[in-house]
Task: inverse folding
């Protein structure tokens, strides 16, 4: 009985927290319908009913935020896809040209006579390509593409450091580390993007403790990537250095994504980004 | 083929309920209870109907102190007329759908 009461109160708290979070996702001028739904939640008989009612706020907020913006979102989606696909086409050609210039006969290969003889050149192209992609995406106001390039930059940076330290010839045995780095970087960016504070929102825990939030994003990403890799490859557990690589990748990605989010928020405040 | 606006079974059930007493104001929670629609389905429908000018909205003072004001709804003249037309148009298919769920009707 006590347990049921506790769970009911917990559901009630969750419902109120959800509604409060949803309010921060809607511009003040468009809150009428969410306010209406919130007011009606007081009619619910218990916490679970209130939580079920509050969950309806999620599609409602989505509907509110979609109004009049579908066309803008489609255009933004096209810009993001073009920024990613276009730059991939450019960077691949650039790497071909550079590898030809430096007499590297291979693309991403590691056979003798290939790019492993020019690791600094290869790393510079890979990192520079990612960073340049990020800068161009930000200039195009394509935030998703910027996050995409943030992951690529993190992956290439951490990967390059790792390869230079361990020797590129031994790359195949670090397949698990590569997957872990990529996963950690992706999780870090996604979480940091979710955690980013909006200029429309009132001051929250995240905006007051932005660095803490980024570190949390990085740590969660590390834990997730690590857990997934542990399930797949037990070798990673034995090699502690790999853990530091994955952790560094997640932290780096979260901080980079945080910076992109901050930049995007400033643009949003100026009305130049959706 | 895209669906015509305001012809979904959920929208029609809301319109049907509002038409039962077109001049009365209705609360969202009561509409949800009576139509069986969840809040996440009901409110986007109400929002769309209001934007199309079919629905009038009004904030009312709470019945109990300490509670927030409540949003209420009723059909506009145009909305009531359009709702009757939509329900009449949809009546045969709605009837078929209902019969399909009656035991022994197949």
Result:
């Amino acid at each position: 009985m006590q347990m049921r009461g506790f769970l009911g109160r917990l559901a009630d708290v969750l419902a109120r927290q959800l509604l409060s979070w949803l309010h921060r996702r809607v511009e003040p001028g468009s809150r009428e319908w969410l306010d209406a739904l919130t007011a009606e939640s007081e009619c619910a008989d218990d916490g679970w009913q209130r939580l079920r009612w509050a969950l309806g706020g999620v599609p409602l907020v989505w509907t509110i935020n979609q109004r009049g913006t579908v066309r803008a979102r489609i255009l933004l989606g096209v810009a993001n896809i073009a920024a990613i696909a276009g730059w991939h086409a450019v960077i691949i050609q650039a790497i071909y040209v550079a590898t030809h210039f430096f007499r590297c006969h291979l693309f991403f290969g590691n056979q003798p006579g290939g790019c492993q003889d020019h690791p600094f050149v290869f790393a510079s192209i890979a990192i520079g390509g990612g960073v340049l992609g990020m800068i161009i995406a930000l200039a195009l106001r394509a935030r998703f593409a910027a996050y995409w390039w943030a992951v690529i930059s993190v992956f290439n940076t951490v990967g390059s450091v790792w390869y230079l330290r361990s020797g590129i010839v031994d790359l195949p045995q670090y397949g698990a580390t590569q997957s872990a780095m990529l996963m950690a970087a992706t999780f870090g960016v996604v979480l940091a993007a979710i955690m980013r504070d909006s200029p429309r929102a009132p001051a929250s825990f995240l905006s007051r403790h932005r660095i803490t939030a980024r570190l949390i994003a990085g740590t969660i990403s590390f834990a997730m990537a690590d857990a997934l890799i542990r399930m797949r490859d037990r070798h990673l557990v034995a090699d502690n250095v790999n853990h530091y690589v994955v952790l560094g990748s997640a932290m780096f990605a979260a901080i980079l994504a945080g910076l992109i989010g901050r930049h995007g928020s400033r643009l949003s405040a100026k009305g130049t980004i959706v | 083929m895209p669906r015509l606006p305001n012809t979904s079974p959920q929208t029609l059930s809301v319109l049907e309920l509002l038409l039962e007493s077109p001049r009365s104001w209705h609360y969202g929670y009561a509409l949800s209870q009576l139509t069986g629609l969840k809040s996440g389905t009901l409110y986007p429908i109400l929002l769309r109907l209001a934007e199309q000018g079919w629905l009038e909205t009004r904030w009312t003072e709470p019945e109990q102190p300490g509670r927030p004001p409540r949003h209420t709804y009723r059909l506009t003249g145009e909305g009531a007329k359009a709702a009757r037309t939509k329900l009449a148009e949809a009546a045969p298919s709605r009837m078929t759908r209902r019969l399909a769920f009656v035991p022994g009707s197949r």
User: Anything to note?
Assistant: Residues 21 and 101 of chain B are 27 Å apart (CA to CA). Residues 9-93 of chain B form a domain with the Arc Repressor Mutant, subunit A fold (CATH 1.10.10.10). Chain B touches chain A through 22 residues (CB under 8 Å). The first helix of chain B runs from residue 9 to 20.
